[in-house]
From TrEMBL:
It comes from the Bacteria. Keywords: Membrane, Transmembrane, Transmembrane helix. InterPro entries: PilX/PilW_C, PilX_N_dom. The chain crosses the membrane at residues 12-32. Residues 10-60 form the Type 4 fimbrial biogenesis protein PilX N-terminal domain. Pfam families: PilX, PilX_N. Coiled coil: none annotated. Residues 78-171 form the PilX/PilW C-terminal domain. This is Type IV fimbrial biogenesis protein PilX.
Length: 173
């Protein structure tokens, strides 16, 4: 009588399937991370867009107030400031936001808060195209119209959200 001994396993199917499972799992993880990153980027872009719209609306509100030719004071009462001193730091970099005006902007189904202040710059600036010389700022120019100039700075910020700061120079004839 002969003893029958079965031969050992020779297939590698189990190993191949396990390797394929690991590769597919890695592909799924990479795809998931990419999708999450894109979602965060689009949410950040939406936050920035809303903040930009709020800051822009605050600029427009500031322009409407500056059209009244206000001069302001050193304390920036009601968000209207006098001429900035040449040696001082810009108001938007320091604590200048403590006296800034605050406005609430309705952006469809969301509301965003924005702050702005108006800095009076000068009231004797020649308007473009109203002087007899090619250089409007020339001391010998004969100008027919002088403008009031303001610098309006607005920012929209919220905790954990994008912060946007905009600035414009506004001329009032």
């Amino acid at each position: 009588m002969t003893n029958f001994h079965p031969r050992g396993q020779r297939g590698i199917a189990l190993i191949v399937v396990l390797i394929l499972l690991v590769v597919m799992s890695l592909l799924a993880i990479v795809s998931l991370r990419s999708t999450l990153l894109e979602e965060r980027m689009s949410a950040n872009m939406m936050d920035r867009s809303l903040s930009f719209q709020a800051a822009e609306a605050a600029l427009r509100e500031g322009e409407a107030i500056a059209a009244g030719k206000s001069v302001g004071d050193a304390a920036c009462t009601n968000g209207i400031c006098n001429q900035p001193a040449a040696a001082s730091a810009p108001r938007w970099q320091g604590t200048g936001w403590t006296n800034a005006r605050t406005t609430s902007v309705n952006l469809g189904n969301k509301t965003a808060a924005a702050q702005y202040f108006i800095e009076y710059l000068a009231n004797n600036v020649p308007a473009r195209g109203t002087c007899t010389t090619t250089e409007d700022v020339s001391p010998d120019a004969t100008c027919t119209q002088l403008e009031w100039r303001y610098r309006i700075t607005a920012r929209s910020t919220a905790a954990g959200r994008a912060t946007v700061m905009l600035q414009t120079t506004y001329a009032v004839p």
